[in-house]
UniProtKB/TrEMBL annotation:
Keywords: Chromophore, FAD, Flavoprotein, Lyase. This is Deoxyribodipyrimidine photolyase. Its cofactor is (6R)-5,10-methylene-5,6,7,8-tetrahydrofolate; FAD. The record marks 308, 364, 387 as: Electron transfer via tryptophanyl radical. InterPro entries: Crypto/Photolyase_FAD-like_sf, Crypto/Photolyase_N_sf, Cryptochr/Photolyase_FAD-bd, Cryptochrome/DNA_photolyase_1, DNA_photolyase_N, Rossmann-like_a/b/a_fold. It comes from the Bacteria. It comes from Metallibacterium scheffleri. GO terms for molecular function: deoxyribodipyrimidine photo-lyase activity; DNA binding; FAD binding. Residues 2-131 form the Photolyase/cryptochrome alpha/beta domain. One of its GO terms (biological process) is response to light stimulus.
Amino acid sequence: MSTAIVWLRRDLRLADNPALHAALAAHARVLPVYIHAPEEEAPWQPGAASRWWLHHSLSALDESLRACGARLHIVRGPSLQTLQRLIESCGAAAVYWNRLYEPAALARDRDIKQSLRARGITAHSCNAALLFEPWQLATGEGSPYRVFTPFWRSALTSMDAVACTPAAQRIDMPPMPTCTPLAALDLLPRLRWDRGLAAHWQPGESGAQALLHAFIEQAVHGYKAQRDYPAVTGTSRLSAHLHFGEIGPRQILAALREHAGNDRVGAASSIAPYVRELGWREFSHHLLYHFPHTPTRNFNPRFDVFAWADDGVHAEALARWQQGRSGIPIVDAGMRELWHTGWMHNRVRMIVASLLTKNLRLHWLHGARWFWDTLVDADLANNTQGWQWSAGTGADAAPYFRIFSPVAQSAKFDAAGDYIRRWLPELAAVPAPLLFQPWRDAALLQRTGYPPPLLDLAASRAQALAAYQQLRAQAAR
């Protein structure tokens, strides 16, 4: 009776799980395993909010596996050595897993595959996380894409080939010794700052499906018009579920197509605006795979000599930005939403990032690291691409001279002030447009205790533009 191990990582679901599906098709018994070895992902091991989500996602997966007659075997330790011990314990002839694409994970998985095959163990990896492998799409010259539009145009030509695998119904496990209790992984915070996260999220496969169906029924057809307004539920909020693999992009695409009557994903499709955002996720992974240095270094090397502000001079400003005390309401609302829920609306992410990297001229890594620790959807590909885009240093990036005006952005995308008032209750009674720039009334600041702005928006914008002009002059020499 043949036995296989399915090594689960960020593919924490039973439906459309190619590795699990392949193992069940080829073997009589399957051992679902999660190996906790965060140090192998250094320097980007999961942050605090991600660990909270992981705890609850693993718990939900174990519950789903038990309904299929199995359970999740949790082990702490180095991945290769742990797999080797498990192979000996249960007599496994094969190990299956779904691929990860971060540089550290790619190197580790390559070494593990070689080591297992050298011992005569079948080692098989699958794609569960993406519509297309990062190496699957290339320019006419065979090089990786650096601009989104031609990348997505190429992707759309192959979109109809995407299909899902069925969910597991029954899993027979080999007998195994006692595994590590989930609580022993110490994923939850000891000081319980996570109550806001628990109130806003349901980690796990069923939570992902519930959000997807709510989005399809209530928001997908208005997505293009509503996605930029942080006070309304205009987005899917599936990013964390996608990162942990509680749902896959193929499942989302299939559900959207079914709802739209098998509408093809063309430019005129009713679901195209949202599917295009899935395309940006694909593009981010494409970039990370082909340019693995970008989580810590500029994609555009011209910015290696850019005049970023001195960290020491702006240490207090950085702390105020992180804590939602910048004195700029839309920025503070976003940072407080992030701290309370582990998530921030995408339009607001761009606003807070523009302030940090352009008005303050602090290196984008300060923001990337803060988001990494505080976001439940912290994903290395998306986080890197998002921050480099905002800073103007990345592929297909916002031009450096595009500097978001927090006041104008508030007036346009939160005109009634509902989002700001929700997260800044001290300003709840302030009418718009004063709500967007309360520093214009010194008495208001004194009365409410809301801080004055940490910088002059107009002056800091001019200084940022001057620094950019200096960079251009250096490049022209």
